[in-house]
């Protein structure tokens, strides 16, 4: 169980960190947040939760107007141009232990996030105050860089501020300038394209559907995730996600939209000009092909599993 917003606020007070808090309706974007705190005196922030191909995770906290090019950032970390992507929603709950829309540097307070690398925009240090969500997106708090640093040091971290808009050359004689921020550990979450995605049972544990057994995904304090097989109760149906075509389409659209936005930047516009459309389409097809195949397989298997259980529990009426 991760820390709650109330526990975090108590901790900030115990550390004697000066902050102001503003409650508001749940917001999912910086624009929506600005409607409630944009005139309260402080810079807004955007917070990205990213993943590389080796299952290492990163939080990038930047001022709202800072331009973050994921391809450039990936190269600067030594991961190549396509080494970073948005982390899956499942990782928010398993690793950061926050819901969608609540990515924040304060999430590193949770032990499960101890292997997550945190990169802070150096522009934060130039602001008198900056707004962040304290683990919940129905409240915003503002504090200065000194207060944020004090909190991070209390968790055992040294704050790392970088120029997120820089684009230094990377090559044989010019090593990646941010390679030191690669996390030392990785957290492997279930990623099984031939099985249904994880769902939750009544205890809050994540359960992967199967016709013979259910795999319970238990998160240890170290942040590592392990699979423990258990036999289902006789006659009971394991918890599986619904084969909902609408949700399936929404997930496809979310993945496509996220990738599309990550492909369009000032640098890519300058580089490709009139050919940008073709370049973006090619990159999206290349990056999404396997993801979409996996999603389609998951949807197919989920529908099959639901049909299987419906079949074995169907009892025709006697004439």
Automatic annotation (TrEMBL):
Name of this chain's protein? Prolyl-tRNA synthetase associated domain-containing protein 1
Q: Which PANTHER family match?
A: PROLYL-TRNA SYNTHETASE ASSOCIATED DOMAIN-CONTAINING PROTEIN 1-RELATED (PTHR31423:SF3), YBAK DOMAIN-CONTAINING PROTEIN (PTHR31423)
Which GO terms label this protein's molecular function in UniProt?
aminoacyl-tRNA deacylase activity
Residues in domain YbaK/aminoacyl-tRNA synthetase-associated? Answer: 24-150
Q: Which Gene3D superfamilies does the record cross-reference, listed alphabetically?
A: YbaK/aminoacyl-tRNA synthetase-associated domain
Organism of provenance:
Theobroma cacao (Cacao)
Corresponding gene? LOC18592304
For this protein's source organism, the top of the classification is: Eukaryota, Viridiplantae, Streptophyta, Embryophyta, Tracheophyta
Q: Which family does it belong to?
A: Belongs to the PRORSD1 family.
């Amino acid at each position: 169980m991760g820390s709650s917003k109330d526990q975090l606020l108590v901790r900030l007070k115990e550390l004697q960190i000066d902050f102001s808090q503003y409650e508001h309706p749940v917001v999912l974007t910086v624009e929506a947040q600005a409607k409630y705190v944009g005139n309260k005196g402080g810079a807004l922030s955007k917070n990205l939760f990213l993943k590389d191909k080796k299952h290492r995770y990163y939080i990038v906290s930047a001022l709202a107007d800072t331009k973050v090019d994921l391809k450039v950032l990936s190269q600067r970390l030594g991961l190549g141009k396509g080494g970073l992507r948005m982390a899956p929603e499942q990782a928010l709950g398993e690793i950061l232990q926050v819901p969608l829309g609540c990515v924040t540097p304060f999430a590193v307070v949770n032990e499960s996030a101890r292997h997550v690398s945190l990169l802070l925009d150096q522009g934060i240090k130039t602001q008198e105050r900056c707004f962040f969500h304290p683990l919940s997106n129905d409240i915003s708090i503002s504090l200065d860089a000194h207060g944020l640093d004090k909190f991070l040091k209390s968790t055992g971290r040294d704050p790392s501020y970088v120029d997120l808009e820089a684009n230094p050359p990377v090559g044989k004689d010019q090593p990646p300038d941010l390679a030191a921020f690669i996390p030392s550990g990785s957290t492997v979450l279930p990623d099984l394209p031939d099985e249904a995605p994880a769902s939750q049972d009544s205890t809050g544990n994540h359960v992967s559907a199967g016709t013979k057994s259910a795999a319970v995904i238990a998160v240890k304090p170290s942040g590592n995730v392990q699979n423990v097989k258990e036999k289902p109760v006789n006659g009971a149906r394991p918890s599986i996600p619904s084969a909902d075509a609408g949700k399936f389409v929404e997930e496809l659209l979310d993945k496509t939209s996220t990738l599309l936005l990550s492909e369009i930047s000032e640098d890519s516009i300058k580089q490709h000009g009139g050919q940008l459309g073709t370049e973006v389409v090619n990159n999206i097809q290349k990056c999404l092909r396997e993801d979409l195949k996996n999603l389609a397989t998951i949807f197919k298997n989920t529908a099959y599993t639901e049909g299987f259980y419906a079949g074995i529990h169907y009892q025709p009426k006697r004439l």
